[in-house]
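Below sits the subject:
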Amino acid sequence: MNADSNARERIQRLLMATRRISQAGSLVRRELSARLARTSGLSSAGIDWAFEHCLELTPSEAELTALAGSVTSTERAHVILPANVFVAAHRAIAIALAAAPRVRVKPSRREPAFVEALAAEAPDLFECVEELEVERGDHVWAYGSDVTLEALRRQLPPGAVLHAHGTGFGVVLVDLATPASALGLAEVARAIADDTLAFDQRGCASPRLVLACGGAERATAFASVLAAELALAEVRVPRGTLDEAERADVAWYLACAACFGPVFDAGQGSVSVRGPSADGPALVDVPPVGRHLAIVALEHFAPALRALAPWLTCVGCASPSLAAQARQLLPLARVVPLGKMQTPAFDGPVDQRPDGAGEIIV
């Protein structure tokens, strides 16, 4: 546990800086948004959505206490950031500041704008660097693909401590045979659409699969409703641009999905349907980014959740009973109500899987 009495002060300084650069209507926010429009690939409305709905600006005292107590004190910490979710830098830097008074941050070369704005607003709180110089005993928080993290393991010196947060995604649980106690299916679909539109589905908490009990016929009917809500969400928050590799992934996925079940257009996204196989849950390719969802019709949630557990970071649930089931089956995953998948508690990393616990390099 972290015994550094100054950890909370450092986190509070970061929070104040983040509030200033994200204040609606301010010059710094306008300038930052203009840069993000060039670097993030998101639409202007998508950038505004992230600022207003996905940035943790007012964490509770309990959350701050949990975040500060979730790390071990060290002299130096390092953060390696990806480009896919620009606001994720706020949480990642807060975790490192909770652990150490000296923090160096290596932003993505593709999207350094948010981190650079924070560094300018809070001088001497942390240092932006192009390359890390890690020493024995240093802690490194790294976020990226499993391939990138494996290469990093080979580069770190013996005795460094790596907190690796690799490839992961979110799923949604919906029981179509038993309507949710508080939400009708239209409201469920609208909440899923809101969770999906953030960052154009590039985040580790973004839903990719909708696991639905209730039969293939109900799943197909719900897919039509969900596709309509995704199309409406695109009117409110247009999708940004996809790079060449992402566009290729989408084209391949849609061609394959059409071979196994119906595919509904959802603005620039899609909703596909897969039914259960005779021997258990259907194997299904995880849809690519760009607001594409696959509904997998199941008889029971447990087999699918157990199979997907290594990759699941967040589970959005349409009812409290589904949330209780998910927590029992996935004790390390974030389990939240629908519509809240992109705003997890500010109490530590979003990704709580075992690899993020700290691995000493030998």
User: Anything to note?
Assistant: The CA atoms of residues 85 and 340 lie 16 Å apart. The first strand starts at residue 76 and ends at 80. The chain is about 40% helix and 20% strand.
